[in-house]
Amino acid sequence: MKPLRHFLSMNDIEEEEARMIFKKALEWKKNRGKEFPTALQYQTWALIFKKPSTRTRLSFEVAIRELGGEALFLSSQDLQLARGEPIEDTAQVLGRMVHGLIIRTYEQKEVELFAAYGNIPVINALTDEEHPCQVLSDIFSFEEKRGSIKGKKVAFIGDGCCNVAKSWALAAEKFGFYLWIGSPRGYFSPVKSDFVQNTSSVEEAAQDAALLYTDVWISMGKEQEADKRQMEFSQYRIDRRALSVASKDALVFHCLPAYRDKEIALEVFNERKEEIYTQAENRLHVQKALLAWIVGKLNG
Ligand code: CP
Ligand code: NVA
């Protein structure tokens, strides 16, 4: 029997595997509505989300359906988990009834426990630590427009400790790009890598970058720090000043939801919304291919 695949972290995928996923994602994007893959036929996948979601939930539910499977959204508040049932028991029971699990939660340890006890593939749909599906899809979105990301400079402006930034930092060495985090000092990346640099200067991070990327200043679960963060991050945004020093053909990405005139200037968002919405759409195509890879059916 083949070992189970999980996608809990950017560390769970090799560049070569990601490239196979991107190839299939592009094919399925082009042929949507003409080609009907069946990688999840007769399968039921559960989604447990302990935090709100628009894009991740929608893209996974649609992806599962378009692969011939059924998606079962389980409200975390209605599960016995909310009354303290151990993850071990929940995971064991899910594993006897469904074929895979997609989970959005707080601690990375929780997705690891589901993977350890469920005996089914588990996908991290965002934890406090990582958002690997987002970044995998974002690398695809960059390459779709600009070719290989290898050797390029990517600037992440905002909270260098947040889940999205951490997944970007783990991806840097794997894909061979240089990530510059432009964050206040207390929010530098915890990832130590020759491919990751931290600076408190937005200009230094953005200088000659091929991609300017940002995310909210206040991630889900950090609401109690809102006032402090609004002050600390007030200069850490993608605006005309950042764009003026970036590469002439720099892309602007935002994982969304976006707060205008906070982490991204309203005028920049409005000018670049087409590339940002395409970035969001690609979550569907990439996650479809990711699901097929996870169940070992990327090639039929
Ligand atoms: N970018 C992203 O993951 O969006 P949602 O929180 O809406 O899923
Ligand atoms: N860092 C953000 C990402 C939202 C998709 C958060 O965790 O809220």
UniProtKB/TrEMBL annotation:
Gene3D superfamilies: Aspartate/ornithine carbamoyltransferase. The keyword Ribosomal protein does not apply. Its EC number is 2.1.3.3. PROSITE patterns: CARBAMOYLTRANSFERASE. Residues 5-144 form the Aspartate/ornithine carbamoyltransferase carbamoyl-P binding domain. Signal peptide: none annotated. GO terms for molecular function: ornithine carbamoyltransferase activity. Keywords: Transferase. InterPro entries: Asp/Orn_carbamoyltranf_P-bd (IPR006132), Asp/Orn_carbamoylTrfase (IPR006130), Asp/Orn_carbamoylTrfase_sf (IPR036901), Asp_carbamoyltransf_Asp/Orn-bd (IPR006131), Orn/put_carbamltrans (IPR002292). The keyword Secreted does not apply. SUPFAM superfamilies: Aspartate/ornithine carbamoyltransferase. It is an enzyme of class 2 (transferase). Residues 150-293 form the Aspartate/ornithine carbamoyltransferase Asp/Orn-binding domain. NCBIfam families: orni_carb_tr, PRK00779.1. Belongs to the aspartate/ornithine carbamoyltransferase superfamily. This is Ornithine carbamoyltransferase. It comes from Candidatus Methylacidiphilum infernorum.
